[in-house]
């Protein structure tokens, strides 16, 4: 603990150790004399502040008795420049001062004469009051005249000054309440709900009583209805019960005092009631949406295959069907029966619901179910435990190696099946319409034939038991194989081979069908337009008639002839149903408001509601749906989303949440949006965050937060501009047309500032002296995160800062900014090239679509869009030419700079003709093709300065015409003559040497060297001597960088370079080649450590993404790329021109960005230091302190403004033997 003592000077005193307890020492003469003997300094002072050391957890037990402004006498000892307090502090009094004075003067002690006690000496006035000299009564201060810094009281309330706190302390002292200064500065915002623990389903509601925020737990009394939004959609509870919404679940949990939580958003079993066509099964897809799958109809031909699960299937179709139904990755291991082809699973016995899996190394092992569907179909197991579904039960049984089976469907001890014991094995009890019903188990399509006691061959033992269960006959396994005589007997039309009493095989029709009547709901309609009482009866009839008949649909064939359905319904099996399959979580932009006041997630959901209602529901504006609520009786009628509870004042004003307004707290304040997000967990309405420069107004659309842009601004927040434009005060203006305002007529001021002309210089924007945002309520005093990634104390502070610097800084969220402020910057400071043209994008002229090889085409009744012209087709987002004369397949090889390719064919060692077509994705120079020859006169086709260059050895020839994005090239040569046709134009050139050497290797889209010279392109086709190169003829390759001067960083190792003295003020080029081992690490940091306000640049890996961070003096900026793979070499190049920054990763343009800062210069001049790999001793700027993670990996090259940094110029390396690599670690 450290104490600050004040007696004309300020001292930092450290309490190191104090022996004894908290008893007050008696200031006797002998005790004071001992202090003089053992102490170096004795002083009296006022305690102005108390703080605790971070590196020590020891707190002196008497510290709680010390308060700010207390006066004490300190006895200190000096140890190496630090004052230590080794004795308890002594309270100040006149006798104590007399004792100290006489001992210091070495005089005899004399008692002080008694004097007449003054009227104010009889009592001690409380803090914040003073004694009246005439009355002797303690009087509190009436007002404070001096304005000082804000302080936080022990009651968690911020006071304007120390004086105001003392006045409040004096008033509370009369009521027996003690108030002191807790800390300097305003109190941190504190939610009173943090100290309150609510019961199941209860909500914490904050109310203000006598100026103090108090919290209480109450049951939800009102559930807002937002249509089919997430908050108002059905949920599945942890008990397996469906509720209308999460609010209704909490209401039930609160009323029943039961701990019920949300298990899934959506119904417990989305497949329940979801009808699928015959042969298909319902499975959960993305976002738990029910989907009908496994619809493949398999033939009964016998072509046995052995799967990787060790099971034999009748044919490959049945194997795929089993993989779909079981949701496993099963493929064909070998063709034939598993026991005949020697499957490793034949000798494996996997019990406890485990399954055998054949590995690629031809070994087998037992695996437990790894993943189960997110569905609630509770089953009660034989061990008395309830599982979410049968798959979870099997998984638990397999993992614990204990046999667990289904006892009955439903929760143990709950439901009709819990007390129903009439099902015979292997039947299982299932609740149907609230009544118990015995059902037979389902089986897989595994082919492991067994011969039953009834002479019938069954596919597996499970199907034998299922047949016994269905027919209620006692059938047992006679032996494991096909019944004798049936092996070569083929039966058609649903008949099965049966060995009769005469031991002769014969085909028998399925005559043992259950006795269903036509009114029991098992009817099916066959493809012969005949209604059968069940599917078994259909097969029986087809067998006796020897006709191929399958089920068309469930129900009677004539059920829908005279059925008239309501609006939107379809007739299926004589029943009208709404067969809409709507997405579970459509995008927010798809939401539609209905005339019934319900906000539907999509048009499909509105049509489904119309179908269920039987009448159309018209579409309305989104604002129409905000007032629709399903509520319980409430006198105040406060909006339960936007208010703190259900109470209101005498005028009917409800207590609104931050950012919410209205008498009933039913809408957001101006410049705020998203009241519906509070129901999803948000604490307040969100600031619109509209760009002050690019938006037409400060408010936004209330459901999406989208702003209204002006002057060509783009983006949801109007903070982006098209290519060739820049964001200025008047919106997006062409970069070439921007001019500095020279008078108030052309200067536009923001944030409440007014333009003031100046005859001697440019006009200036003058901000108001005060800021008043009381109209916003409680949100005006909340901390706010700005679009520059900085946290401001309140909205006024942000507005005054933005006004002073006339910057486009607006609030983006309430509360402090995220620790990783890059996410805040990335949300509002996006790159200017995000609005690049794509196929289908609107256009006005052909030049806009040139990069796509497309044209601006206008079709009747439609707008002009970028589309492929005649003779062209789209491929990977661009247009490629259709070559009708070519009968071979196109190559269409993409060189995306993540891999290199070379031709593998051996018949191209010597050739004289070459044709190719390449589409360039960007105007970047690089190698189209390089042929490595034995005589080292390599043939290379290069794109340079928008021309095609043919290089043969050291000789070269350039094309006469320039190219855009499409290159059609044909080369022919004979000895030393070269003819080439480029986009229809022919050129001829003669070389000195002879071009007839054999080719060793042909590289495509790369030169095969390090560092690489590659292109981002699509190779449409390639011909060598009129023979096409196909996709199977090319293979990828990877060439590591040259193993020279490679530095390996580990264990906090770093390099330090001082006084580089480079001019990077206007432009900065940085190129670095590295191989990262970890996803996070600082590669370099360059600044002037002696100046805390200096500019700097830094390059780091954050979550495997390259980040370039820089400070130009008026705010942090950064640019980042996409994730790059670890343990592989990468080259990153950064190009900065003033405020414009570009990042190239492995030769590809990754991002472009224009800084919004006021300054455009990077000032790193004198006393600069460059750290590589790590920054020691905390000299890194606090703005990027979290980037200082030691880099672990290898570094080969670092260049700044084309000047290479000598990475081996220091002596702290460890050099490996027989290698040119250097290892750099800490403490070397």
From TrEMBL:
What region holds the Laminin G domain?
Answer: 1044-1225
PROSITE patterns per the record? EGF_LAM_1 (PS01248), EGF_LAM_2 (PS50027), KAZAL_2 (PS51465), LAM_G_DOMAIN (PS50025)
Report keywords, A-Z: Differentiation, Disulfide bond, Glycoprotein, Laminin EGF-like domain, Signal
Q: Where in the numbering of this chain does the Kazal-like domain appear?
A: 139-189, 211-270, 293-340, 360-414, 439-485, 501-559, 577-627, 766-819
Read off the Pfam families from this record.
Answer: EGF_laminin, Kazal_2, Laminin_G_2
Q: Which GO terms describe its cellular component?
A: extracellular space
List all disulphide bridges recorded for this chain. Answer: 636-648, 656-665, 688-700, 690-707, 709-718
Domain Laminin EGF-like: from-to ranges: 636-687, 688-734
MF annotations from Gene Ontology = calcium ion binding; collagen binding; extracellular matrix binding
Q: Does the keyword Signal apply?
A: yes
Quick check: keyword Disulfide bond in the entry? Answer: yes
Q: Which GO terms describe its biological process?
A: cell differentiation
SMART domains membership: EGF (SM00181), EGF_Lam (SM00180), FOLN (SM00274), KAZAL (SM00280), LamG (SM00282)
Signal sequence residues: 1-20
**PANTHER family from the UniProt entry:** FOLLISTATIN (PTHR13866:SF29), SPARC OSTEONECTIN (PTHR13866)
Spell out the protein name for this chain. Agrin
Q: What is the lineage of its organism?
A: Eukaryota, Metazoa, Ecdysozoa, Nematoda, Chromadorea
């Amino acid at each position: 603990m450290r104490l600050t003592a004040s007696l004309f000077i300020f001292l930092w005193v450290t309490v190191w150790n104090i022996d004894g307890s908290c008893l007050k020492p008696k200031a006797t003469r002998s005790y004071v004399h001992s202090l003089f003997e053992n102490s170096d300094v004795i002083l009296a002072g006022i305690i102005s502040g108390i703080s605790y050391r971070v590196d020590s957890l020891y707190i002196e037990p008497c510290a709680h008795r010390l308060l700010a402004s207390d006066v004490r006498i300190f006895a200190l000892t000096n140890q190496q420049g630090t004052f230590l307090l080794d004795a308890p502090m002594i309270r100040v009094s006149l006798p104590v001062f007399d004792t100290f004075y006489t001992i210091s003067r070495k005089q005899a002690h004399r008692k002080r004469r008694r004097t007449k006690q003054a009227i104010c000496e009889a009592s001690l006035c409380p803090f914040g009051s003073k004694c009246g000299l005439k009355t002797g009564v303690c009087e509190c201060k009436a007002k404070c005249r001096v304005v000082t810094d804000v302080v936080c009281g022990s009651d968690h309330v911020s006071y304007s000054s120390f004086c105001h706190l003392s006045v409040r302390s004096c008033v509370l002292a009369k009521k027996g309440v003690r108030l002191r200064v807790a800390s300097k500065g305003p109190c941190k915002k504190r939610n009173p709900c943090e100290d309150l623990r609510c019961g199941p389903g209860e909500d914490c509601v904050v109310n203000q009583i006598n100026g103090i925020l108090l919290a209480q737990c109450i049951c939800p009394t009102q559930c807002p209805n937002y249509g089919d939004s997430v908050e108002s959609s059905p949920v599945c509870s942890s008990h397996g019960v469906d509720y209308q919404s999460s609010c209704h679940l909490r209401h039930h949990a609160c009323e029943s005092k039961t701990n019920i939580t949300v298990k899934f958003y959506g119904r417990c079993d989305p497949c329940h009631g979801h009808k699928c066509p015959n042969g298909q099964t319902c499975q959960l897809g993305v976002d738990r949406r029910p989907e009908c799958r496994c619809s493949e109809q398999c033939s009964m031909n016998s072509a046995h295959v052995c799967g990787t699960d060790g099971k034999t299937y009748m044919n490959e179709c049945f194997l795929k069907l089993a993989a779909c139904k079981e949701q496993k990755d099963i493929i064909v291991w070998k063709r034939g029966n598993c026991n005949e082809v020697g499957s490793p699973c034949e000798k494996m016995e996997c019990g406890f619901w485990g399954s055998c899996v054949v590995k690629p190394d031809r070994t087998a092992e037992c695996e437990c179910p790894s993943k189960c569907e997110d569905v609630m179909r509770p089953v009660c197991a034989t061990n008395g435990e309830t599982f979410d579904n049968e798959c979870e039960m099997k998984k638990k049984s397999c993992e614990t190696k204990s046999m667990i089976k289904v006892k009955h469907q439903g929760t143990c001890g709950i439901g009709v099946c819990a007390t129903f014991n009439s099902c015979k094995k292997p039947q299982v009890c299932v609740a149907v319409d609230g009544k118990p019903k015995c059902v037979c188990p389902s089986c897989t399509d595994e082919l492991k034939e067994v011969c039953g006691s009834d002479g019938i061959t069954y596919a597996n033992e499970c199907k034998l038991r299922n047949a016994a269960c269905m027919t209620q006959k006692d059938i047992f396994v006679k032996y494991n194989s096909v019944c004798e005589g049936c092996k070569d007997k083929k039966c058609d039309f649903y008949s099965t081979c049966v060995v009769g009493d005469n031991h002769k095989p014969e085909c028998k029709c399925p005559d043992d069908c259950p006795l269903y009547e036509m009114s029991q709901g098992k009817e099916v309609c066959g493809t012969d337009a005949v209604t059968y009482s069940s599917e078994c009866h259909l097969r029986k009839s087809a067998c006796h008639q020897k006709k191929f008949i399958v089920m068309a649909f469930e129900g009677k064939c004539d059920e829908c002839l005279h059925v008239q359905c309501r609006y939107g319904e379809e007739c299926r099996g004589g029943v009208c149903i709404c067969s809409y399959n709507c997405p579970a979580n459509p995008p927010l932009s798809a939401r539609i408001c209905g005339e019934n006041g319900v906000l539907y997630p999509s048009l499909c959901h509105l049509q489904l509601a119309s179908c269920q209602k039987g009448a159309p529901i018209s579409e309305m504006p989104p604002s129409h749906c905000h007032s629709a609520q399903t509520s319980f009786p409430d006198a105040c009628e406060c909006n339960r989303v936007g208010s703190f509870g259900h109470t209101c004042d005498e005028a009917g004003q409800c207590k609104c949440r931050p950012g919410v307004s209205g008498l009933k707290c039913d809408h957001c304040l101006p410049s705020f949006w998203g009241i519906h997000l509070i129901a999803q967990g948000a604490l307040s309405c969100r600031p619109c965050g509209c760009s002050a420069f690019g938006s037409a107004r400060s408010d936004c659309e209330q459901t999406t937060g989208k702003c209204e842009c002006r002057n060509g601004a783009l983006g949801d927040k109007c903070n982006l501009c098209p290519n060739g434009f820049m964001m200025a005060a008047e919106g997006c203006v062409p970069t070439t047309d921007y001019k500095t305002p020279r008078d108030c007529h052309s200067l536009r001021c923001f944030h409440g500032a007014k333009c003031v002309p100046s005859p001697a210089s440019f006009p200036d924007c003058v901000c108001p002296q005060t800021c008043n945002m009381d109209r916003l309520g409680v949100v005006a005093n909340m901390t706010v995160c700005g679009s520059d990634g900085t946290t401001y104390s309140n909205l006024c502070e942000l507005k005054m800062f933005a006004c002073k610097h006339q910057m486009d800084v607006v609030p983006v969220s309430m509360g402090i900014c995220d620790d990783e402020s890059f996410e805040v910057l990335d949300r509002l400071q996006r790159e200017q090239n995000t609005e690049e043209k794509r196929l289908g994008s609107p256009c006005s002229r052909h030049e806009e679509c040139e990069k796509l090889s497309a044209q601006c085409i206008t079709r009747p009744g439609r707008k002009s869009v970028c589309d492929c012209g005649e003779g062209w087709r789209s491929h990977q987002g661009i247009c490629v030419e259709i070559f009708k004369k070519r009968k071979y397949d196109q190559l269409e090889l993409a060189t995306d700079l993540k891999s290199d390719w070379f031709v593998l064919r051996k018949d191209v060692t010597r050739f004289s003709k070459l044709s190719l077509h390449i589409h360039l994705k960007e105007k970047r120079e690089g190698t189209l093709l390089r042929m490595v020859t034995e005589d080292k006169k390599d043939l290379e086709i290069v794109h340079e300065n928008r021309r095609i260059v043919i290089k043969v050895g050291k000789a070269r020839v350039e094309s006469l015409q320039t190219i855009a994005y499409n290159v059609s090239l044909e080369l022919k040569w004979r000895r030393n003559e070269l003819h080439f046709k480029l986009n229809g134009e022919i050129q001829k050139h003669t070389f000195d040497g002879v071009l007839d050497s054999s080719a060793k290797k042909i590289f495509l889209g790369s030169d095969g060297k390090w560092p690489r010279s590659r292109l981002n392109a699509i190779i449409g086709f390639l011909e060598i001597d009129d023979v096409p190169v196909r996709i199977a003829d090319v293979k990828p390759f990877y060439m590591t960088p040259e193993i020279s001067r490679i530095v390996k960083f580990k264990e906090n190792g770093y390099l330090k370079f001082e006084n580089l003295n480079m001019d990077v003020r206007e432009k900065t080029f940085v190129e670095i080649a590295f191989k990262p081992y970890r996803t996070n690490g600082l590669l370099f940091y360059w600044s002037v450590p002696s100046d805390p306000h200096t500019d700097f640049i830094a390059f780091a890996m954050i979550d495997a993404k390259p980040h370039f961070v820089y400070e130009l003096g008026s705010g942090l900026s950064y640019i980042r790329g996409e994730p790059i793979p670890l343990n592989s070499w990468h080259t990153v190049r950064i190009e900065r021109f003033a405020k414009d920054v570009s990042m190239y990763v492995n030769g590809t343009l990754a991002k472009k960005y224009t800084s919004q800062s006021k300054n455009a210069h990077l000032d790193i001049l004198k006393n600069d230091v460059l750290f590589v790999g790590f920054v020691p001793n905390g000299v890194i700027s606090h703005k990027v302190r979290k980037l200082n993670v030691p880099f672990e990996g290898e570094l080969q090259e670092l260049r700044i403004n084309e000047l290479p940094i000598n990475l081996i110029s220091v002596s702290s390396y460890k050099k490996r033997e027989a290698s040119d690599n250097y290892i750099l670690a800490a403490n070397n």
